[in-house]
Amino acid sequence: MDSLDAFARGKLSSLEAAALRRDLVPTHRLQGVRVERGGRELISFSCNDYLGLAQDPRVKAAAIAAVERYGTGAGASRLVTGDHPLLGQLERALARHKGAEAGLVFGSGYLTNIGVTPALVGRGDLVLLDALSHACMFAGAKLSGAEVGIFRHNDLEDLAGRLAGRHAGVGRTLVLTERVFSMDGDRAPVAEMNALAASHDAWLMVDDAHGLGVIEPEARAPLEMGTLSKALGSYGGYLCASAPVVDLLKSRARSFVYTTGLPPASAAAALAALEILEAEPDRCSRPLALARQFTEAMGLPLAESAIVPVIVGASSRALALSQALQAHGFLVVAIRPPTVPEGQARLRLAFSAAHAEAEVDAVAHALKPLLETIR
Ligand SMILES: *Cc1c(COP(=O)(O)O)cnc(C)c1O
Questions:
Q1: 113, 182, 234, 315: which one is catalytic?
Q2: Ligand 1 atom closest to 133 (CA)
Q3: Span from the CA of 19 to the centroid of ligand 1 (angstroms)
Q4: Residue (of 185, 182, 162, 186) closest to 174 by Cα position
Q5: CATH code for the part of the protein at 19-53+280-373
Q6: Residue 337, phi then psi, degrees to nearest 5
Q7: Measuring from atom 4 of ligand 1, which residue has the nearest CA?
Q8: Residue nearest atom 14 of ligand 1, based on CA coordinates
Q9: How far is the centre of ligand 1, averaged over its atoms, from the C-alpha of 209 (Å)?
Q10: Which of 4, 20, 126, 353 has a Cα at 20 to 30 A from 244?
């Protein structure tokens, strides 16, 4: 065996020993929240398709029509020949929805975050991140070459202290947070952070991956990024900002310039989904209502978003609970370090407009006794 395979096997066995090895499980998404795994049909609480739009006939029809008209792939970077007209249309729709001057669509949310930050800050600058920020926000900060500081989760005082305590040589400052935290389901105080950032001439970027379509935002940041892959049921990422910022990114965000444009079908699906999202407020209020039904049934703090964590501690316990729920017909994936901090492995439930109230009651009813028996 050569050293490469030996390296991989060694790493895998230490991951396995720590219950941190990850493997793919083929999952067939059926109608609504139903999925099929290993020949079994399960009710999923682990999809981010919050509004059930990935299966919506109107969204599917828009994607099919785009394939018929524009083909399957963009064929080149958008700056070359990959800028088919649906992308501009989607960008205008996103900007309008967000009340921003302009929008820019990227290949994914991950690509958006690793492109935007390095285009706005670099060596000599500072990025301040909420401690629970998504991995791709940390990746963008690291790629930028700027100094990276981490403030305590949702702690305005800690952030204020770090902004006030910057050393004299620091150039620009970018502050990064999430509107809805992906593994905790709580929300950032965006209005207060906007004011704080503005008073220190720092720029705030909010990751709205889990907010769009689910949470009515109380404030908008000057930089709002997100994904087309969650409530919009498609694929891709975006940034909404002022026109000069978006124009700068078209020239300077490397994950925009040096990558192929989004496939036309993804843009068409996102556009159709955005229209539905704006036309059907009852659909948008449902995930949060169902999450609250669940937290009430479980005796947990009232849900702030469509995401509810049930923190159970050890990775092995989270896996055992997930297995046991699967035996009851529910798919609730265990989330382990390094996605979450050490000792805070959890079940993460995501509620969708496509869940029935009875399904929410049923998963709570199944989970409650399991938490007593699986220790
Ligand atoms: C899912 C997610 C992303 C990445 O979006 P993709 O389009 O899936 O790459 C970024 N930030 C947060 C908070 C997310 O949850």
A1: 182
A2: 13
A3: 24
A4: 162
A5: 3.90.1150.10
A6: -60, 150
A7: 109
A8: 209
A9: 6
A10: 126
Domain ranges in the chain? 19-53+280-373, 74-262
Would you tell me the crossing angle of helices 109-120 and 135-144 to the nearest 10 degrees? 30
The tens digit of pLDDT for each residue in 255-294 reads: 999 999 999 999 999 999 999 999 999 999 999 999 999 9
pLDDT tops 90 at residue 321: yes
β-bridge pairing 102-106 and 126-130:
unpaired
pTM of the model: 0.96
Burial class (CB in 10 A: 0-12, 13-18, 19+), 245: buried
Selected residue with higher pLDDT from 20 and 181: 181
Q: What is the CATH topology of the domain spanning 74-262?
A: Aspartate Aminotransferase; domain 2 (3.40.640)
CA 365 – CA 328 distance, rounded (Å)? 10
Q: Which residue has the least CA distance to atom 7 on ligand 1?
A: 109
The pLDDT of residue 1 is 65
What is the tens place of the pLDDT at every residue in 218-256? Answer: 899 999 999 999 999 999 999 999 999 999 999 999 999
